[in-house]
Design a protein that fits this description.
The complex is a heterodimer of chains A (240) and B (293).
Chain A (H helix, E strand, L loop, with lengths): L9 E12 L2 E12 L3 E5 L6 H9 L4 E8 L2 E2 L5 H4 L4 E4 L11 H7 L10 H7 L1 H5 L10 H13 L5 E5 L7 H16 L3 E5 L3 H4 L5 E6 L2 E7 L3 H12 L2
Parallel strand pairs in A: 3-8, 3-9, 6-7, 7-8
Antiparallel strand pairs in A: 1-2, 1-4, 4-5, 9-10
Chain B lengths: L1 E2 L2 E2 H32 L6 H19 L3 H22 L9 H23 L15 E3 L4 E3 H23 L1 H18 L4 H23 L9 H16 L4 H21 L7 H12 L9
Antiparallel strand pairs in B: 1-2, 3-4
Helix pairs in contact in B: 1-5, 1-7, 1-8, 1-9, 2-3, 2-4, 2-7, 2-8, 3-7, 5-6, 5-7, 8-9, 8-10
The chains are: A alpha/beta (240), B mainly alpha (293).
Chain lengths: 240, 293
């Protein structure tokens, strides 16, 4: 029985997170938390700090202050390569497939960070296109194939928290649909997911909660249930 | 016997010299290419590290009685370890800055290393005996082949292609190739990139030291032996294309042979031919023969 006295354990908590690129101050004191098994989105216009939030969690921005808790551990001073070993899988906006490595080398590059990851065969079942292209260089894959590969490679490692940045961007509707099915399946399997998504129609049915960002701050949190009543405000705020 | 009025003995021996020089160019430019690929640093200390390899071998033999075969392993380890220290203590602080700072730092280090060895050992040069097993030669009929020189070619090609295999076919090599493309992403996937960088620099430096040990019995062991060679090696790297592994091996060998041929046909041009080729390549294909623009 779930009750207010037994909240779901928290996977990620950001407290008063500030991030800087050189002189420019991008995140202005972000607070958010994501429970285990939850799927949340970060919504906002371009430049609102959504991608920077994900990069800050991975330690990929110049300077950060505040607190980043993963499974109850403070990780703001932990080097990037150790963040992954806290069970975090990062899929960047640009996909960052290694062009000189074959698809399979890309898939198997990352070290296993915890048990329970999917096997290469399982992943080829989930993404049959990748199986056909396994020996092709990463640079020769189509945009959709690269996106699937970028997802698949973090599912193999046993990561339980997935940071997915604009995974549907520039992809054909059929592939977007496929990715939606994959996310639904991952939710069923208990993954914790943070989606940064421009395609609100893709994200809305998948997410339990939405964080709305503006100028590097969270200006609203909207739960799945509240969403219908907030649509007009959202459209206005996001400019969609 | 003659080909186009050139005696085969002369042609053969100059091609052999070319192939030997080419082997050194290959192994040195390979190290530079690996280091540049991952660290984005042009390692100007490479020549000094080559010289140190030769000196460590010479000191090991004359002071501690450590023979050539052991030196082939020990000298790269020692000089490679010095490389590891350089990376950890100095180069690491420069990665966020422009390429130029790494170049200046390693250039400064090269001058310091050369200065120390010059101060300790003078510049007259020390000789290193060819190991007994590899002394003597074989008469091939058209030319005389010193065994040690054949060994140098075989040993350096083995190391070059072994390195190529490691980079292209192993997991560690996949880390290196991926890191060369996008080190931040490799690190985000959970791979210890700082350690990979340290290892890579150490390995590149060890390659230079290995070449230095190979060179010790052929050339004089001299504090300036590296700076004479490294300028040509930089030209080789520019011609082959910065960062290409196979490119640097093939270009190194090829240019050594071209140099040897030039020495037969028009000796006056032999010391500039590499630079002339460099100019032409830069004009026609600025990314180098094997480089991606």
């Amino acid at each position: 029985m779930t009750s207010a006295f037994k909240p779901k354990p928290e996977y990620l908590r950001l407290i008063d997170l500030h991030a800087f690129y050189g002189e420019s101050h991008i995140l202005h004191g972000l607070d958010l938390s994501v429970a285990k098994g939850e799927c949340v989105t970060l919504l906002g216009r371009n430049g609102s700090g959504r991608t920077t939030t994900l990069k800050s969690i991975m330690g990929l921005v110049g300077r950060r202050t505040g607190s980043i808790m993963l499974n109850g551990n403070e990780v703001i001073h932990v080097p990037t390569h150790k963040i992954a070993h806290h069970g975090v899988g990062y899929c960047p906006e640009e996909r960052a497939i290694f062009t000189s490595l074959s698809a399979e080398e890309n898939l198997t590059l990352a070290p296993i960070v915890s048990s329970g990851g999917m096997s290469v065969d399982e992943l080829y079942q989930m993404f049959p296109n990748l199986s056909e292209r396994r020996n092709s260089p990463g640079g020769k894959l189509s945009g959709g194939e690269q996106q699937m590969l970028a997802m698949a490679r973090i599912l193999r490692t046993g990561a339980k928290l997935l940071l997915l940045d604009e995974i549907t961007e520039g992809l054909a509707p059929v592939i977007v649909k496929k990715l939606g099915e994959v996310i639904t399946e991952l939710k069923k399997r208990g993954f914790t997911i943070i989606l940064v998504e421009q395609n609100f129609r893709f994200a809305a049915p998948l997410a339990d909660r939405h964080y709305v960002l503006e100028h590097g701050e969270i200006i609203a949190t909207i739960t799945q249930e509240e969403l219908p009543g907030k649509m007009d405000w959202l459209h206005h705020t996001l400019g969609v | 016997m003659e080909i186009f009025g050139i005696s085969t003995a002369l042609l053969g021996s100059q091609l052999l010299v070319g192939l030997i020089n080419g082997s050194f160019y290959a192994i040195l430019s390979l190290g530079l290419a690996i280091i540049f690929g991952l660290l984005n640093i042009i390692n100007f200390a490479h020549g000094a590290q080559y010289m140190m390899g030769a000196f460590v071998a010479w000191i090991a033999l004359t002071r501690f009685g450590i023979n050539y075969w052991a030196a082939l392993i020990v000298a790269p380890l020692i000089v490679g370890f010095v490389g590891v220290l350089i990376e950890r203590l100095m180069l690491r602080r420069l990665y966020k800055l422009d390429h130029l700072y790494g170049l200046l730092l390693t250039f400064g280090l090269a001058l310091i290393f050369e200065g120390i060895f010059r101060d300790q050992f003078g510049i007259s040069g020390e000789s290193y005996e060819v190991p007994e097993l590899l002394s003597g030669g074989v008469n091939l009929g058209f030319m005389f082949l010193p065994i040690y020189r054949a060994w140098v070619i075989v040993a350096s090609l083995t190391v070059c292609f072994g390195t190529w295999y490691m980079i292209e076919r192993t997991k560690l090599g996949a880390y290196l190739r991926a890191g060369t493309e996008n080190s931040a992403m490799v690190q985000a996937l959970g791979i210890n990139v700082p350690l990979l960088i340290t290892f890579t620099y150490g390995y590149g430096v060890a390659l230079a030291a290995f070449a230095g040990v190979l060179a010790a019995p052929i050339f004089q062991v001299n504090p300036l032996m590296g700076s004479n060679l490294i300028i040509v090696v930089f030209a080789v790297v520019v011609i082959g294309g910065m960062g290409s592994i196979m490119g640097s091996i093939l270009t190194g060998l090829g240019l050594g042979l071209i140099e040897g041929l030039t020495r037969v046909i028009y000796p006056e041009a032999s010391s500039v031919v590499v630079f002339v080729i460099m100019v032409i390549v830069l004009l026609v294909r600025p990314a180098g023969l094997f480089g991606k623009s």
